[in-house]
UniProtKB/TrEMBL annotation:
Its main location: mitochondrion. This is Heat shock protein 60. It comes from Neovison vison. Keywords: ATP-binding, Chaperone, Mitochondrion, Nucleotide-binding, Transit peptide. InterPro entries: Chaperone_TCP-1, Cpn60/GroEL, Cpn60/GroEL/TCP-1, GROEL-like_equatorial_sf. GO terms for molecular function: ATP binding; ATP-dependent protein folding chaperone. It is found in: Mitochondrion. The keyword Electron transport does not apply. It comes from the Eukaryota. The lineage of its organism: Eukaryota, Metazoa, Chordata, Craniata, Vertebrata.
Amino acid sequence: MASLVSDVLCQIRSGSRALAPHLTRAYAKDTKFGADARALMFQGVDLLADAVAITMGPKGRTVIIEESWGSPKVTKDGVTVAKSIDLKDKYKNIGAKLVQDVASNTNEEVPDGTTTATVLARSIAKEGFGKISKVLILWKSGENCFIGCCWSDLSVN
């Protein structure tokens, strides 16, 4: 009788997890911080911008995009090239998706200039990531200066 009750309880518990998915265990997320994450994200930005930049201007080259169905697509449109890029590394893909959003938003506002917006986004990202690392260095040196000043005040008194 006790084994029958435990079998029924096990069935109820496993069935309740199907009804209440918040009770099941979720997988942990892979996280990165600092310079490593910024470097990987910028690699994705750079890769996408390189692919789009060759279509810039009247002498820009065409790009052939492999479609999952039908024949390949030949285009010089920056937003089409940007949307077709999907990177395997998820951190690089995050950077690429940020620039894809820039190209898509530019295409919605003004149907032309997506390539220029993508190249500008790469420059902004490069400068921004550079400034972040410099600010962290300045913050650390300012913090050390503050600690040194406080320490000298404490030792005098």
